[in-house]
Amino acid sequence: MRFVRVSGLAALAAGLVLGCGGALAASAEKGKTAYVQHGCWQCHGFQGQGGVTGPKLAPEPMPLETFTAFVRTSNRAMPPYMEAILSNEDLADIHAYLETIPKAPDPKGIPLLNQ
Amino acid sequence: MPADAEATLPALIEAVKSAIPNDRKAAIEKRGEAAKKAFAEARERTKQAAALGLGCEPDQHGAPGAWRPGAQIKDLDWSLVASSGNVSNWPNRLWPMEKHYHWLGASGGYGVGYGAPASVGAALANRDLGRFSVSIQSDGDLMYAPGVLWTAAKHKIPLLAVMHNNRGYHQEVMHVQRLSNFRNRVASLGGDMGPVGTSIENPDIEYHKLAESMGWWAKGPIKDPDQLGAVIKEAVAVVKSGQPALVNVWTQPR
To answer: What pLDDT score does B56 carry?
Structure first.
């Protein structure tokens, strides 16, 4: 479970940095759970890689402010998630999770894509 | 009387080529080079996108369409007979579609349940033409007319069905989520329940056993993309011997 190890380290690092300032740190671990519970994976894939149904979200997600504004006000294929069903805390956690997703491996190293 | 496009097209293409004036050929060639470059760049972007899913956790890996018909069937005269459901068009984006029968198209409508019977019918026609038939078979789609598996085994119709098993009637999974958003409701029931009536989990359907019970060679569930190549190689050998084969692959939703 390569990804779990990576996200665990990233979450630990985020906790160390944000914890010093007393701010409520977003949790990538909680975000991963929220990403599934709120159905983000359905259109964007489990790694936020996107598909024809939803754009790529990760790696290198858009800034939290932009991400939040879009989720709250979207009038496109994805209807907005309002705070009544997706809290600000969950949204920040989801963003934290997306930030931990590593870049894709080089396609040249994946046999299924090169045989 | 209807025209026969397959019989007519080669002659029509040659006629058009010979009718092109010499002074236009260079311009067309230049435009073609630009199109080839754009195509190659798009192919690279698609491979990057496929790598995001294929390179990650087992159980959540990329769609089986993100498998190139490489070592296993590259030397065969293959035909993608169905790519049912919505699989992000992976085969159309990654496979070298160079002949008219490389992709037989979709249902023409929304075609729920189209994939399995359509692929068996097309594989029957391809059998007589000596073509190797392969389908990307969605799990929800196969739930509509699974009896066609027996038909394929009974009549020895060679077909490689690689399943896009995302454990749901996924178009509806997304639809319920969208409507819930519109109405400020929570769609997920938690655990493996999913949005109401749309996930196909607990119990997970063992499609490989379903196919086996009707006379197919079948393996699965394949949850690790690293295992996929070897299993497909086995399945290709079975299909080349004249039998249908099914590989049950757990995939990302799209």
So the answer is: 55
- Residue A31 identity: G
pLDDT over 50 at A11, yes or no: no
Fold entry, domain B55-167+204-249:
Rossmann fold (3.40.50)
- In the β-sheet with B160-164, what is the strand arrangement from edge to edge? B78-83, B132-138, B160-164, B245-249, B217-222
How close, in Å, is residue A77 to chain B by CA atoms?
8
* CATH fold label, A2-103: Cytochrome Bc1 Complex; Chain D, domain 2 (1.10.760)
Domain ranges of chain B: 5-53, 55-167+204-249
Q: Cα–Cα distance between B138 and A75 in angstroms, integer? A: 30
Minimal CA separation from B59 to chain A, in Å = 10
> Does the distance separating the beta carbons of A52 and B47 come in below 8 Å?
no
B residues 90..109 contacting A (CB < 8 A):
94
Q: So what's the pLDDT on residue B58? A: 45
pTM value is 0.82
